[in-house]
Amino acid sequence: MYESSLSRIDFSTGSEAEVGGVYKGIVTSIEDYGAYVEFNGGQQGLLHISELAHDRVSRVSDVVSVGQQLSVMCLGMDVCGNIKLSLRATLAQTETKESFVDDSLTTSAKISPHIRASVHDRSTSQAKQGRNEDQLVNKDEVDEVKFSTASNSFFETRSVASWTKTIHKFCTVDRNVDEALQLLDSLRLRGYRPNSLNLSSVIHALCRACRYAEAHQRLLFFIASQCIPDERTCNVLIARLLDSETPHATYHLICRLINLIPKFVPSLTNYNRLIHQFCKSLEPNVAHRVFFDMMDRGHCPNVVSYTTLINGYCKCGEFGIARKLFNEMSEVGVVPNSLTISVLLSGVLRSHDTQCAKELIDQLWEKMRNDYDSLVNCAAFANVVESLCGEGFFSEVFQIAEDVPQGTSVSEAFAYAQMIDSLCRVGRYHGASRIVHIMRRRGITPSLLSYNSIIHGLSVDGGCMRAFQLFQEGIQFGYVPSEYTYRILVESLCQEGDVPKAKEILQFFIKQKAVDRTRLYNIYIRALCLVNNATELLNTLVSMLQMQCKPDVITLNTVINGFCKMGRIDDAMKVFNDMTMGEFCPPDSVTFTTVLCGLLNAGKTEEALVLLQLKMPERGLIPSVVTYNAVLRGLFKLKKTDEAMEIYKTMVTQGVSADSTTYTIIIDGLFDADRVADAKRFWDETIWPSNVHDNFVYASILKGLIHSGRLGEACDFLYELVDCRVSPNIVNYNILVDGACNLGLKKQAYQIVGEMRKNGLCPDAVTWRILEKLHGNQEEESNRLLRLALVLEDGGRSSPHLSSSFFSGFMINLILAMPPSTVNKMQFMLRCFWDLLCISILAVL
To answer: Which residues form the S1 motif domain (predicted)?
Structure first.
């Protein structure tokens, strides 16, 4: 049987209210989510809609009204700090009291969706006069429940350990923390006081579900309800909450625990983790306060504490404070390890203090040679190499690779792999290949992963010849590139015009075991299409057939696409005809779409339409929107506007839904054909009602209107879109600005920029480059700069509308987006700034 005493909560008003106590209250206001009730001498509590009755309540006003007196039970405090009240609980208690007045009736009590009390009729209860308990059913088991007539509270014959086990099962086995919380809240209504095990189970389950914010709030709620775990449990829970990477919330929780338990001291590990998280978020000052708090509570900082704090200050550029902390370590008897020295060295390298860095790096090598902690030494070496590469000290990295000053404190394989990784991260792939050369000279084989990273980076960075050389050298020790690296290397070699080397790599891969040869050929053929090598393309296709490697549909589609892009439509049609005649695999919709594009690009409109309207249906292929878009684009490009519109009508008739690409193609085609009225009508009657339009469609309309000399209509169109709650992107505004600048309309251009800002968009680099067209004349530059200086000097005082945030934000945007071609960037910036400033002043006036 649980304890009968009720817990108390001290609320902010200063008076106490019992959790589980029943109070008279008056409804003061009603909201959609519940009602606010004044009780217990002026305290305000929230009566949630779910606590109004046992049945579902649709509207709060159906149950209570303003000014109504109620008997409500205090449930404690919710996660938002409101006092939780329940009308439903008092109704349940009233029924319970009535059941004890009439002993012939057993009352049911619902605990949770999975726990319910059985209801007996009058005859059954009369037949069992000596029995005081109802049957309690919890899924597969039946437990007994009884009501205490002495305290009018709900108690259960199940032990605390039994309920603790049930809650723990919900949290761990079932992974249903919400069920556990619902059960726990229901038990609290009936006098049950959660223990440390309940608290631990719930907090761990919430953290496992990544509900860290709720875990923090729940723990604060438990603490406010005087459910305070022991010191060991507190440290375990703090360690788990630190996984959330929210140091401020966790530190606030620690302070609350210390206020309630003055003797509680968080563990040194928890303090170190908290300091690390504050330093990671670039708040070393806060971390230092935690450091002092840790010392005040009796902890002696260890090397981890100092190293973490030094690293935080170094990241923020506070090298002086970091150096003082480093010197302080020897004063308090804490011996810095190699990682501490490397962290301080990283900060010194950022300040480019080469003399101090040289002293520290010599000290680091000596420390590493005398320290036998391999993990710390590896971390220190990795940190210093990464810092050297990040700050551009590559010669020092190569010197370390040659001299090996760290000795045997770090394995050579790890050291060289770290150098390669750090150099690749900063894009120094040739430097990484130099490390490989040093390794090979010392008889060390690089790891295949590091070697692949170098070759891949060189291929992407334009060093495909060096990558091919490394590929040939790597074959000697069993290196095989990944498929992705193979594709990048082959494509880069083909683009350099060195097809024989690319073919050599293909032949090497084909000889490997358990490889998809067709896929390897497809990659190679795709690379050949990039360089317009039709002869090699045909030879490769013949080579596939000779090696009994059957081309698939992807192979043939790639070949056809390559021929079409090279303008060799006849060769493409030969391959296509072979596919339709059964020589190869049958064509699919991609094949037909590719051939259609090739025919239209070659001006063979009739053949393309026959292929679309006759041959595709004959093979059971239904043209998709992608196919129709390709045909429409080709027809508009050939100035066959009427034929294109007929194809669009056929597309709609066959039930193929147009997308925004379709509409963009049609709008572009109509404007190019100078059919402005048709384009407007198509927008009004088709595109807008379909709700299928995006920024590409808007840009097409704006460009068409501007090119036809209708800048005003283009502006009106964009502003109407905004009025209809459509948000065009900055590209559409830049189109208007460019149109105004081309016409020399400076005022209109800056007005468009103002509208852009009103709608939440900031000008980008393209905007400023467009505006530069308006500032070719520099005759009045000195006068403008003088007037601007006077306005800036007195603007903030004389006009509250011209705030400093406006000026600073505008200048920052200009500086960051400044075109590199501008001769005098500051003059250009001030010119633009002056024009916008004048417009802003006129707007204010």
So the answer is: 20-88
Specify the pLDDT at position 776: 59
- What is the per-residue pLDDT across 772-829, written as a single tens digit (0 to 9) for each? 877 754 444 444 444 444 444 454 444 444 444 444 444 444 444 444 444 454 555 5
How many CB atoms neighbour CB 682 within 10 A?
19
Residue given tokens 């086990």 in the structure block: 165
- Report the alpha-carbon distance of residue 505 to residue 148 in Å, rounded: 86
Sheet holding 133-138, edge to edge: 110-112, 115-117, 133-138, 141-147, 154-156
Residue of 421, 355, 353 lying closest to 385 (CA atoms): 421
In degrees and rounded to multiples of 5, residue 47 shows phi and psi of -100, 95
Tens digit of pLDDT for each residue in 744-756?
A: 888 899 999 999 9
Query: What single string gives the DSSP state of each residue in 323-345?
Result: HHHHHHHHHTTPPP-HHHHHHHH
DSSP one-letter code for 656: P
The distance from CA 57 to its chain's CA centroid, rounded to whole angstroms, is 39
List Cα–Cα distances, 486 to 503, 513, 525, 708, in angstroms. Answer: 11, 16, 13, 49
Distance of CA 192 to the CA centre of its chain: 42
For the whole model, what pTM was predicted? 0.64
Q: Let me know how long the chain is.
A: 845
Return d(Cα 51, Cα 82) in angstroms, integer: 14
From 844, 746, 756, select the one nearest 795 (Cα to Cα): 844
What pLDDT, on the 0 to 100 scale, is given for residue 558? 92
226: confidence class by pLDDT, cuts 50, 70, 90 = confident
CB 177 within 8 A of CB 206: yes
Q: Chain-centre distance of CA 476, in angstroms? A: 43
The 8-class DSSP code of residue 760 comes to T
Distance, CA of 591 to CA of 63 (rounded, Å): 68
632 vs 658: CA distance, rounded Å: 12
Measured between alpha carbons, how far is 10 from 160 in angstroms, rounded to an integer? 26
Rg, the chain, Cα only: 38
Cβ neighbours of residue 463 under 8 Å, at least 6 residues apart? Answer: 429, 430
Output the pLDDT for position 260: 85
- Among residues 584, 577, 487, 502, the alpha carbon closest in space to that of 542 is found at 584
Give the whole-angstrom CA distance, residue 241 versus residue 233: 12
For residue range 722-746, list pLDDT tens digits in order. Answer: 999 899 999 999 999 999 998 888 8
Question: Whole-angstrom Cα distance, residue 439 to residue 416?
Answer: 7
- Going by the DSSP 8-state scheme, the letter that residue 354 receives in this structure is H
Task: Tell me the C-alpha distance between 554 and 535, whole Å.
Answer: 19
Alpha-carbon 186 to chain mean position: 38
Burial (CB count within 10 angstroms: exposed 0-12, middle 13-18, buried 19+), residue 557: buried
- Token pair 């579902």 in the structure block, residue: 56
* Neighbour tally for 800: CB within 10 Å: 9
Residue with tokens 């039970």: 73
Q: Which positions ≥6 away from 408 have C-beta within 8 Å?
A: none
Cα distance between residue 599 and residue 605, in whole Å: 7
CA–CA dist 393, 20 (Å, integer): 69
Rounded to whole angstroms, the Cα distance separating 587 from 582 reads: 10
First to last CA, the chain: 78
Distance, in Å, from the CA atom of 636 to the CA atom of 644, rounded to the nearest integer, reads 6
Helical axes 499-510 vs 517-529, angle rounded to 10°? 170
Average predicted confidence (pLDDT) for the chain: 81
Least confident of 141-150, 381-390, 708-717: 141-150
Q: Which of 55, 50, 19 is nearest to 34 (CA)?
A: 50
- DSSP lists the bridge partners of residue 137 as 116, 142
Strand partners, 23: 72
Per-residue pLDDT at 615 exceeds 50:
yes
